[in-house]
Amino acid sequence: MGMEALEMASEPSAVASEGAPRNDDIGVDTRLELFRLQVEIRDCEKRAYDLFLQNMIKGTSHLSLGQEAVAAGFGVAMRKGDKSFCTYRGHAHTLARGAPMEGMLGELMLRDIGLMRGKGGSMHLTSVEHGVMGSYAIIGAHLPIACGSAWRAQYLGEKDVSVCFFGDGTTNIGAFHEALNFAAVWKLPVVFVCENNLYMEYTPIGEVTAVKHPAADRAAAYGLERILIDGNDADAVYRAAQAALTKAREGGGPSLIECLTYRHSGHSRADPAKYRPPGELEEWMKRDPLIVYRQRLKDFGVADEKIQEIAAESKRKVEQATAACKASPPAPVELLTADVFADGGWAWRN
Q1: Residue 345 domain-assigned?
Q2: Who wins on pLDDT, 82 or 6?
Q3: Whether 53 contacts 104, CB under 8 Å
Q4: In a domain, 248, yes or no
Q5: Which domain holds residue 85?
Q6: CATH no. for residue 167?
Q7: pLDDT given for residue 139 in this prediction
Q8: pLDDT tens per residue across span 181-232
């Protein structure tokens, strides 16, 4: 499945991918923002890995190295007030909505400076202020919740759109089909985004799924358009996001978008990814989103100096955020022990 998907990602007839420069409907300023977000997400995720090796991040976490274009494309296309629903691999989407680096890294480090003051950790990042309505560790759990958020907007006549990100493995979960059916029947303003990185944890998605493209090939069952895009190309993601968000905002109902992408590392920190066939990673690294987008900027005449300036500023911000997190105290005990049970406390009651 891995190499087939990579080949598919280069077929314009099958995938909405970007080739040679086309009419600049996106604009230089937007492209620079897309690049900035991808670089900052990459640098921040690399720093999270480094901090883990220093024993400053406990437990496990799931990085988005290699998948930055999906988060950046949607992050730039979404409006203030739109709602994001993420999986446990939610660092990138949280940053893409404008949450501060020190808030994200601080949460991973269980520091008081964290988005949830260190109580949520890597798999439960939330920032209502930035429209990040939670990261969900249970596969598929957030799809019905995203429908509920969209139903609220529809009922109240508000114009925000709920965007729900999930992995390819979620497409074989019952909640995926229930949520798609419910959203289609009620024409809810929700966009479902499948980040197909080819593996559902350690198992190739193609070995356990009846169709080749687990999200796109099932769209027709719910009366939705088949949308399959190159998830390593931020322009392709941005354009698909704009179209789906506009459709939802104007009352046209939900969309299901499958983004073909690839994670550079294992499923989590505990996964060395030995199950990948020889050469697969190397081939996908040629389609690294940052490599693709640096070349895209050059194709549109952006100077190398500007590109390097954005990269340098990202590293400065990561260093600054890291220092702030290290200086922050751990989450206070009274916070960690609050609201564990329904009565607001932590003491066990028979």
Answers
A1: no
A2: 82
A3: no
A4: yes
A5: 2-9+25-336
A6: 3.40.50.970
A7: 94
A8: 999 999 999 999 999 999 998 999 999 999 999 999 999 999 999 999 999 9
Instruction: Give buried/exposed letters for 65-102 (b at 16+ CB in 10 A, else e).
Output: bbbbbbbbbbbbbbeeebbbbbbbbbbbbbbbbebbbb
pLDDT tens digit sequence for 1-48: 443 544 444 333 335 445 445 568 899 999 999 999 999 999 999 999
With a cut of 60, say whether residue 163 has pLDDT above it: yes
Residue 344 belongs to some domain of the structure: no
The count of domains in the chain is: 1
* 227 assigned to some structural domain: yes
Residues pairing with 163 in the sheet: 84, 191
Count the residues in the chain.
350
For the chain, state the CA radius of gyration.
20
Residue 59 has phi, psi (to 5 degrees) of 70, -140
How many separate helices (H) and strands (E) can be counted in the chain? 12, 8
CA geometry: angle 61, 67, 73, nearest 5 deg: 125
Q: What tokens does 288 get?
A: 């690294």
**Mean pLDDT computed over 323-350:** 88
Cα dihedral sign, 143-185-169-131? negative
Give the Cα separation of 221 and 317 in Å (integer).
45
**In 10 A of CB 268, how many CB atoms?**
16
323 contact partners, CB below 8 Å, separation of at least 6: none
Task: Residue 276: count other Cβ atoms within 10 Å of its Cβ.
Answer: 17
In 129-271, where do the E strands start and end? Answer: 132-136, 162-167, 190-196, 199-200, 203-204, 227-230, 255-260
